[in-house]
């Protein structure tokens, strides 16, 4: 199962609304179940460097089927995934990437958000995911 463009645009719209509500500017990337980018939005004034981070957060969440913040916990020194961020052409292992699921709970993609604190990134990504 894959996310559709219509669903991806819905995720982006909800994430943009949440970002506006908390007064921040974000880059928002949505990937399908194969980690291919389906949709992207860079809010006016959002950091240029965060565009790549948003995409990598979405891909990281999908590659390992867990929120990027959870991967971050497992990739600390002494933990089982230490150093994983150096694999797959570079991963992002801090909050802001979450899975996207359909009504049946099947993973259909992921959303990655970057442009503020990691807490804000995660909040905005979660708002996007909840739009489905």
TrEMBL record:
InterPro entries: GlcG_carb_metab_protein, PduO/GlcC-like, PduO/GlcC-like_sf. It comes from the Bacteria. This is Heme-binding protein. It comes from Aequorivita aurantiaca.
């Amino acid at each position: 199962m894959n996310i559709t463009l219509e669903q991806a645009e819905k995720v982006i719209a909800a994430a943009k609304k949440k970002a506006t509500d908390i007064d921040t500017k974000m880059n928002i990337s949505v990937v399908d179940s194969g980690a291919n980018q389906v949709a992207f939005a860079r809010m006016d004034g959002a950091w240029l460097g965060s565009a790549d981070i948003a995409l990598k957060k979405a891909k990281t969440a999908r590659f390992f089927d867990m929120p990027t913040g959870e991967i971050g916990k497992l990739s600390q020194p002494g933990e089982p995934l230490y150093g994983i961020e150096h694999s797959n052409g570079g991963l992002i292992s801090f909050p802001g990437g979450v899975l996207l699921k359909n009504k049946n709970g099947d993973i259909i993609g992921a959303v990655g958000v970057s442009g503020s604190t990691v807490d804000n990134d995660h909040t905005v990504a979660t708002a996007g995911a909840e739009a489905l």
